[in-house]
Write a structure and sequence with these properties.
Layout lengths: L6 E8 L6 E9 L13 E5 L4 H4 L9 H14 L5 H4 L10 H13 L7 E5 H14 L7 H4 L10
Helix pairs in contact: 2-4
């Protein structure tokens, strides 16, 4: 699959009526630079949480189940792995891939647990982080989306 840049946009909290709670949404958008360029953002698709009613859907700003579901959805999409369930990233389905589950949980800690109600994160940042995560653990078997990134160079200090 050819590289496609995209931005992940998380929105949670209240709707247009400030007393009305809305479930968190995870949108995939065409990248735009800076807040002033985002007036007419093109939404490419929405990532739906599996079993939202039963499991609680997406979440962030803490470390828990909603955060793990969000991480699974973002990573599966960014790494072109299909659905979290097919990739072995899901919290509710088996078999689970131990490496991808560890990747998911570290992504929660490093990113999602720190996020506010609304955030945007570029796919390139997700891929760079994931590649670094694999390299730090000396895991040679990379997902296809990480194999064709520009090579990392050693910086002499």
């Amino acid at each position: 699959m050819a590289y496609e840049d995209r931005t992940y946009h998380g929105i949670q909290g209240v709707g247009s009526d400030e007393d009305e709670w809305q479930p968190a949404r995870l949108l995939v958008e065409k990248p735009e630079d800076g807040p002033t360029q985002r007036e007419n953002v093109q939404v490419l698709r929405e990532l739906k949480a599996q079993d939202e009613d039963e499991l609680g859907g997406y979440g962030w700003g803490y470390n828990g189940g909603g955060t793990s579901r969000t991480a699974a959805a973002v990573l599966a999409d960014a790494l072109d792995l299909g659905t979290p369930e097919k990739a072995g990233l899901s919290m509710s389905e088996w078999p689970q891939d131990d490496t991808l589950v560890a990747l998911r949980e570290d992504f929660c800690t490093d990113f999602l647990s720190q996020f506010c109600d609304e955030w945007r994160l570029g796919r390139a940042a997700v891929l760079r982080w994931a590649r670094g995560w694999y390299l730090q653990r000396n895991i040679a078997e990379l997902p296809e989306a990480l194999r064709n990134l520009p090579p990392l160079v050693d910086i002499e200090v």
